[in-house]
């Protein structure tokens, strides 16, 4: 293959993986470098190296991404490439390489690359592990259940492209999200199969639905669907369970790569529930993952959410004024909280879907002192649950198994509704003193805190804003106490090390 002569190198895939691993800062720098190269008439100077190293090579069959990254680290150490080593350590952690394995690699390389080089690399490794907030890789915990190396359904680290909410009243839901998280403008269209074709298990079907799309100031994209006569899966969800999360939508699958995703998902018994396709080729592929992952569907948008939205003409625009700004903190998407009956089975399923092997488990219990001040529906109440949080590509998932109560997890969610996405978290309260003002503003809109508590030895105060009936999920509120350090070890149990399955 000639890199210089191949204009089809997957720059988009490489850029998405780079952003998922290194964050928005390096990704923005990359886009600026690309813009400068385009102005100079030489875009390949940026697109070819990124597409080759972060895209095409890592996506090739023959070697797993995990093995390729280990080889890259060895080259970095031998060449003394500190910047590349720092980036590739983060990539290795994202691919499931553990901190213990990274230290063992340094030991292995010593006789071959020279101890000055490996000692220097080892110091950089320790610094990087301290920086990366990745308990699953950097702190395996007091015990571990080991199985097999990491894989997953996706050829590149998936990036969250949006949250689909299936609601009975899209306008009311849009107004609430505008007030709570600052989505001021919504593009609205009534779809009937002409501009967006529906196929259920490959069979075309007619439907009618209202769709509204809006984005928070920090770039979190909400897609509201109000079924009128479908799509059937979402319409049935609304009829039987009320408003709810219709799908978590991910991007990062290169053009033509959806067939590989579907093939890998099929190994785990997951089919495509339905797809929505446009005349331009942009499509939303909704996977039937509810039984596997815990009551929610995973959707893949190709080639991007922007292309999908652009293919659907806007019928009207809803705009909402919020002169005092959003009530809740609005940052980049932090995590989705899924309430399940069996945390071991569901984290194992997420490992197979996302290739994220290690899932640290925390046991939080008001009777054991790892939770204090717990309240449910305005009254003091004991609470106990298991929680496992891990980064899957460019976002985090929290998998929760309720153990006691009464609680929002148990009495308020899983018993009446079954498993599913119980809450979304868009970022912490920057000033803990603002908590009271937030609660007052919520009360002015008729919103209350359905659950409250303090965890991690007083370091963090948390609550859920009761938006379940209208939005189908709650919104989480968290404030770190001044000077506090969120040390999850106070509630740590052990770390699952799951089989992430074959390619």
Describe the structure.
There is one protein chain. With 503 residues, the protein is an alpha+beta fold. The chain has 3 domains: 3-138, AhpD-like, CATH 1.20.1290; 159-319, 2,3-Dihydroxybiphenyl 1,2-Dioxygenase, domain 1; 335-497, 2,3-Dihydroxybiphenyl 1,2-Dioxygenase, domain 1 (Roll). It has helices at residues 11-22, 24-39, 44-59, 65-79, 82-94, 99-113, 115-131, 135-138, 170-181, 232-241, 258-267, 290-294, 305-310, 343-354, 410-417, 435-444, 468-471, and strands at residues 144-145, 159-166, 185-191, 196-200, 203-205, 209-215, 221-227, 244-251, 272-278, 283-287, 298-302, 316-319, 335-339, 358-365, 371-376, 379-380, 384-392, 395-402, 420-425, 449-455, 460-465, 474-480, 492-497. It has a 12-stranded mixed sheet. An 11-stranded mixed sheet has the order 5-4-9-10-11-8-2-7-6-3-12. It is globular.
Instruction: Describe the strand arrangement of the main beta sheet, using strand numbers.
Output: 1-23-14-17-18-13-19-22-21-20-15-16
Q: In what range is the share of β-strand residues? A: 25-35%
What number is the mean pLDDT?
Answer: 85
Low-confidence residue ranges: 1-9, 133-150
The assigned structural class equals alpha+beta
> Can you tell me the CATH class of the largest domain?
Alpha Beta
- Estimated radius of gyration: 23 Å
Total discrete domains: 3
Estimate the global geometry from the Cα principal axes.
globular
Q: What summary fits the major beta sheet?
A: 12 strands, mixed
Stated plainly, the CATH topology of the largest domain is called 2,3-Dihydroxybiphenyl 1,2-Dioxygenase, domain 1
CATH homologous superfamily heading of the largest domain: 2,3-Dihydroxybiphenyl 1,2-Dioxygenase, domain 1
Helix content: 25-40%
- How far apart lie the N and C ends? 24 Å
Query: What's the tally of helices?
Result: 17
Beta strands, count = 23
Q: Label the CATH architecture of the largest domain.
A: Roll
């Amino acid at each position: 293959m000639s890199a210089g002569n191949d204009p089809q190198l997957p720059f988009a895939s490489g850029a998405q993986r780079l952003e998922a691993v290194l964050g928005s800062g390096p990704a923005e720098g990359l886009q600026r470098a690309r813009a400068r190269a385009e102005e100079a008439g030489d875009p390949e100077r940026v697109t070819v190296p990124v597409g080759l190293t972060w895209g095409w090579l890592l996506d090739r069959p023959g070697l797993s991404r995990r093995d390729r990254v280990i080889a890259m680290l060895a080259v970095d150490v031998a060449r003394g490439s500190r910047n590349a080593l720092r980036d590739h350590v983060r990539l290795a952690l994202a691919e499931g390489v553990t901190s213990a394995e990274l230290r063992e690699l340094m030991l292995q390389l010593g006789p071959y690359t020279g101890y000055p080089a490996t000692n220097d690399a080892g110091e950089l490794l320790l610094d990087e592990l301290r920086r990366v907030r990745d308990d699953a890789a950097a702190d395996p915990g007091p015990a571990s259940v080991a199985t097999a190396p990491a894989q997953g359904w996706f050829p590149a680290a998936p990036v969250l492209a949006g949250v689909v909410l299936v609601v009975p009243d899209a306008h009311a839901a849009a107004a609430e999200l505008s007030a709570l998280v600052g989505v001021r403008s919504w593009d609205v269209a009534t779809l009937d199969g002409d501009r967006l074709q529906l196929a259920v298990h490959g069979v075309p079907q007619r439907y009618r639905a209202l769709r509204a799309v809006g984005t928070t100031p920090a770039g979190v994209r909400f897609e509201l669907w109000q079924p009128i006569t479908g799509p059937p899966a979402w319409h049935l969800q609304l009829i039987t369970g009320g408003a709810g999360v219709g799908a978590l939508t991910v991007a990062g699958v290169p053009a033509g790569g959806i067939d590989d995703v579907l093939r890998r998902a099929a190994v785990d018994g997951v089919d495509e529930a339905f797809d929505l396709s446009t005349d331009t080729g942009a499509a939303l592929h909704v996977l039937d993952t509810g039984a596997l992952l815990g009551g929610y569907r995973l959707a893949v948008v190709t080639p991007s959410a922007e292309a999908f939205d652009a293919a659907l003409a806007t019928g009207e625009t809803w705009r909402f004024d919020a002169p005092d700004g959003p009530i809740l903190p609005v940052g980049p998407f932090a995590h989705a909280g899924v309430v399940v009956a069996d945390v071991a089975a569901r984290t194992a399923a997420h490992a197979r879907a996302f290739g994220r092997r290690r899932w640290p488990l925390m046991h939080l219990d008001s009777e054991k002192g790892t939770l204090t001040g717990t309240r449910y529906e305005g009254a003091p109440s004991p609470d106990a649950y298991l929680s496992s949080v891990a980064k899957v590509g460019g976002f985090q998932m929290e998998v929760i198994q309720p153990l006691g109560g009464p609680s929002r997890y148990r009495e308020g969610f899983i018993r009446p509704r079954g498993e599913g996405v119980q809450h979304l978290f868009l970022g912490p309260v920057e000033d803990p003193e603002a908590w009271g003002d937030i609660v007052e503003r919520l009360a002015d809109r008729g919103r209350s805190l359905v659950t409250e508590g303090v965890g991690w030895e007083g370091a963090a105060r948390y609550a859920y804003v009761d938006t379940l009936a209208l939005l189908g999920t709650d919104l989480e509120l968290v404030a770190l106490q001044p000077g506090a350090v969120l040390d999850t070890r106070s509630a740590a149990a052990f770390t699952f090390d799951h089989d992430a399955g074959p390619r």
